[in-house]
Amino acid sequence: MAIWDFDYSSISSITRLLEDNGLGMTKKFGQNFLVSMSALDRITALSGACDGKRVWEVGPGIGALTTKLLQTGADVTAFEIDHGFCRIIREQAYFDVPNFTLVEGDALKNWKQVWSEQGKPDIICANLPYNVGSVFIASIIENRCLPQTMVFTLQTEVVDRICAKQGDEAFSGFSILTGIDYENSEAFKLKSGCFFPPPNVDSSVVVMRKRETPLVPDSEAKDFLELVRVLFAQRRKTVKNNLKATGKISADIDRALSECGISPTERAERLGIDQILALKRSLDK
Ligand code: SAM
Q1: pLDDT over 80 (residue 69)
Q2: Burial code of 26-53, b = ≥16 C-beta within 10 A, e = fewer?
Q3: Which of 23, 55, 67, 81 to mutate to test the pocket of ligand 1 (most atoms within 8 A of CB)?
Q4: Ligand 1 in reach of 65 Cβ (< 6 A)
């Protein structure tokens, strides 16, 4: 077996490869390749990928990160939507690499099938296409497929939301969703020159490590997440007004809010996970 020896740091080599294969880069698929070897090395190291670990990658492109992950000896399953890139990956890059599996098509549609066939990955590591990044992360967590470690390159704005704490400006329903099961931190920022072509948004790498004990017990997670969805459905509405969508009568909502010491005029982004959990339990009574 031989992993492809391609110079992923060379923009001219990438351009030539794409030209030779009659391919181009598509904005709609968020195609910005990582060309910084040091960034790729740091991302791979943060993921903890190593021999025997099962790793998923969303959007391998032509394989810059994939190659690094495979070199650790990990078993890599990569989801790629661009059929042209898939052809390069299948026929040139990892033609006879046994620890590599390509899943061709939309990761958002295909990951559940792979999960049911292969089981949960230990690690998800990706330079995520920015247009599907947060949707993919939300889908993984909402469906309770929870790998030990996730490392993503994303817009800095999304990383800020993932890492935000109660009271921070960036705190949102997404911060809660990603904070229940994971401890999240921004590992480093990436200059636009680390990518080809350079994106016109700022980028950062986020590391999500699974908590020993989730902040919401697993048995309550589904209902908790439904309550979060209701509370954050209309950001400008008060907690009480958003809660009306639960179908509960006003008196029950008032009682639950008062039991938890939450003002009916409060906004959801000012509530912490513990307060929302207490509210869920009061509403359940
Ligand atoms: N991993 C490569 C790298 O770092 O150089 C490429 C990353 S590029 C930001 C995002 C990749 O995701 C592209 O190859 C794009 O075609 C692919 N992609 C976009 N949407 C996708 C989807 N819904 N499912 C699977 N792959 C997708």
Answers
A1: yes
A2: eeebbbbbbbbeebbebbbebbbbeeeb
A3: 81
A4: yes
201 lines ligand 1 (CB under 6 A): no
Which domains are present in the chain?
A: 11-210 (3.40.50.150), 218-284 (1.10.8.100)
Q: Which residue has better confidence, 191 or 269? A: 191
Task: State the average pLDDT for the chain.
Answer: 95
| The CA-based dihedral angle spanning residues 14, 18, 21, 23, taken in that order and rounded to the nearest 10 degrees | 160
> Is 11 strand, coil or helix?
helix
Q: For ligand 1, say whether the CB of 203 is within 6 Å of any of its atoms.
A: no
Q: Which residue of 9, 14, 58 sits with most ligand 1 atoms within 8 Å of its CB, as the best mutation to test the pocket? A: 58
pLDDT digits (tens, 9 = 90+) for 126-146: 999 988 999 999 999 999 999
Pocket of ligand 1 contains residue 31 by CB under 6 Å: yes
* The two structure tokens encoding residue 88: 């390069």
The atom number, within ligand 1, closest to the CA of 107 reads 24
Q: 209 pLDDT band (50/70/90 cuts)?
A: very high
